[in-house]
Amino acid sequence: MQRRIAVALITWVTLLVGQDPCWAADVAVMGTKVVLKRSASGEKLVLLVRDAALTVPAPGDPSDPAQNTGLAVALIARIAPWQQPVLFAPSGFGTPGWSARAHAAGRYVYRNSEAPAGPSSVRRVRFDAKGLKVVARGIGLALAEPQEAVAVIVAMGEARACAVFEGDAVRRDQPGVFVARRAPTPAVTDCLDIDALLAPPCEISQTCGGVCPGNGVCGGNPFLGCVCASPDQPCGDTAPVCNGECPAGEECTNIGGVPSPSCSCLPAGSTGCGTVDPVCGDGDCPDGLTCQLTTFECCGGASISGCGCGTTDPPDPPCGGTCPDSWQCLIGPGIELCIPFFCSGGSGAPTCGGTCPGPFLCTPLAGQCFCIEPCTGGSPFPTCDGTCTDPTATCRPDPEGTGFCACGP
């Protein structure tokens, strides 16, 4: 799919190719403002970019939009990157068209009062030392659902600039409307690299392939959480990426462990225990430890096995063995806590119409649906001093504060 995306972008960009563009290479810019609206009455785009990196071509330059290349704006949403509507203000002076008078002064103005009819859905373009502003009466995006992020690519021949409106820059993102302001400069060098341009931040990446600040690398398990690890950190702090600093002659290596691996500095050329599964005897470990097969029990009897460095002593029980029988231990990077089991079937939170065994009820908690056991007897909420089936569990007010007494650790 991504290859088709790149081909589509290259196709429309090659229609505008010039030579010796005014920008030496693709330019990533700050996005000052974008407004996308779609309703029964029509569509609207307002794009504003003010960034010193966005330089204005001289009249007659191969990237001159009025005489040579026109100006194209591509819109790409994170939820559907294969949809790439392109708004194009063609070259040529006139009405509609570019203003010859403004062009002579090094200021580019395009007008099409007939938009979305006429030669383009673009109604107006102004491009000068103050920045670029594009107003259009068409956007091409369905806006049927939240877009998450919208990338904008502006092309004048081979000169391209790109901005990404996402995260805290997004002010409204709902069906029919996307509004964002003050988007920081994206960390890309190629505006046609859609994977890089629309990669989500690491912490919300569904595959732990998102972007990180600086030289950080995104890794982890999507269920347990994605984390950024910087090679400037000590090796042991960079799990599960294992890319941190080590003394001379050593390298940061995955030494395994389930369900989340650990990192340690080993002599250069070592084969980390965490990389040899399932032949654990071939893996290397820090002094005093051996590479062995370990098994982690979780999730209602399911087990996870893998190689990890350890001693011959019995491993510590998950969560210190403190979870009641009706709860499970969740372990991840920097995480080790008891959580209830998930409900079976039904709808998601907050409806939570799933099923649970025995006396448990399917209850919303932290945005998920868990099987929670109500307390028996005792004083009502918020005192909650009743009893629980599991003698190791405690009756307490439910964590969401919805007014009932629940059993837990």
What does the main sheet amount to? 8 strands, antiparallel
- In N-to-C order, the SSE pattern is HEEEHEEEHEEEEEEEHEEEEEEEEEEEE
Shape estimate: flat
Distance between the termini: 47 Å
Instruction: Report the structural category.
Output: mainly beta
Helix content: under 10%
- Which spans of ≥5 residues are poorly predicted at pLDDT below 50? 1-24
In angstroms, what is the radius of gyration?
29 Å
Order the strands across the largest sheet as they lie in space. 6-7-8-9-3-2-13-12
Structural features, described:
By secondary structure, the chain is mainly beta. The protein folds into three domains: 2-199, no CATH class; 231-315, no CATH class; 324-409, no CATH class. 7% of the residues lie in helices and 36% in strands. The protein is built from four helices and 25 strands. The protein has helices at residues 2-14, 65-69, 100-104, 194-197, and strands at 27-28, 31-39, 42-49, 71-77, 86-89, 97-98, 108-111, 122-128, 131-136, 150-156, 159-165, 170-174, 177-183, 217-221, 225-229, 250-256, 262-267, 290-298, 302-310, 327-332, 335-340, 361-365, 368-374, 394-397, 405-408. The strands form seven sheets. Strands 6-7-8-9-3-2-13-12 form an eight-stranded antiparallel beta sheet. Strands 1-11-10-4-5 form a five-stranded mixed beta sheet. 37% of the residues are buried. The model is unreliable at 1-24 (pLDDT under 50).
